Amino acid sequence: MTLRLLRLFIICGAALLPALACPTRVRGNQVQPAGEQASVPSKSEGHVPSRPVETTTQPQPTLKEVPRRIIRDQEFIWLRPFRLKRSDLPWLGYMVGTTAVLMAIDRRVGQGLSDSPPGRGYTFSHNVGRFGGPWTDLGVAGAIYLAGRRGGDQHSETTGLLGLEAVGDSLVVVEFLKIATQRPRPTFAGGDVRDYNADGTFFAGGTSFPSGHAAASFALATVVSEQYREKRWVAPVAYGLASLVATSRITMRTHFPSDVFVGAALGLMIGRHVAHDAERSRQEKPLHSRLLPTVSSAGGTTLTLAWEF
């Protein structure tokens, strides 16, 4: 019994540590000033600047950069557990504790669903899962990108690219954890025959833990919600649809409750990381300095030091 509990907590910790990849939230949408110029002589002082200070803008992400950004995200996500802070411990304790409680009831929930014959609820869940999978999320993110690009809406274009990045990140993390945990699904294909030989156990050959549908849907929902957080209706709609997709994986008898919770948590954290990292990149600009020659009306020449940040 002690060995089973130890294994349970090891699995919970290993699965949820990547969720701590979320950085500190960047508050507000205000961009830092484009630049300040120190001691630039004016015309009233008899000085004529030779040329104005040129300001630079932070480049927006492009479609061809998405694979490179996903690789960079993976490095950050998997190395984040080795840089834990004291402020991470409450979240880690909550996540591990909740997952452990759900794992304790996984078997009972799986048996209760598989023992009752599939009905209308199963058919509805099956349709939701079929149209709400990771590939659909990639298609939705791509559609947002194309709509923004065609309509000249750079904000929508960026949202679509970040959505592609977040869903791609979730797929990589989920597939790695599926291979590592090897948890069989509650039922065989079709949802009406339960696998009694591997009921909620791990390392028995399977792809149940965590839920890829939940991870991808919450990753996309989080990016969209963060990008449009000034619109109050976006977050409830986005998270509501993501919750519908995630819950359907349980009622469809394809995942245990803990599979869905861990997948949703991973998607939420990955989406927050992608959205906030992009926002921070837009707000942070490197410090530049340049010397500007100016010509005085008296015939002299001066040099002015200008700072741009």
**Biggest beta sheet summary:** 4 strands, antiparallel
How many DSSP E strands? 4
User: What's the tally of helices?
Assistant: 9
Low-confidence stretches: 1-10, 19-58, 285-289
DSSP strand content: 5-15%
**Shape from CA axes?**
globular
Question: What gyration radius follows from the Cα positions, in whole Å?
Answer: 26 Å
Provide the structure class: alpha+beta
Helix content: 55-70%
Q: Report how far apart the termini are.
A: 60 Å
Which H/E pattern describes the elements? HEEHHHHHHHHEE
Q: How many structurally independent domains?
A: 1
Overall pLDDT level: 79
Order of strands, widest sheet:
1-4-3-2
Q: How would you summarize this macromolecular structure in one to three sentences?
A:
This protein has 309 residues and is of the alpha+beta class. It is built from nine helices and four strands.
Summary keywords:
alpha+beta; four-stranded antiparallel sheet; disordered N terminus; 4 strands; 7% strand; 9 helices; 309 residues; single chain
Structural features, described:
The protein is an alpha+beta fold. It has one domain. It has helices at 2-16, 66-79, 89-115, 120-131, 134-151, 154-181, 212-227, 234-251, 257-283; strands spanning 36-37, 47-49, 288-296, 301-308. It has a four-stranded antiparallel beta sheet, with no helix packed on it. A hairpin with a 4-residue loop joins strand 3 (288-296) and strand 4. Helix 1 crosses helix 3 (89-115), helix 6 crosses helix 9 and helix 7 packs parallel to helix 9. The radius of gyration is 26 Å and the shape is globular.
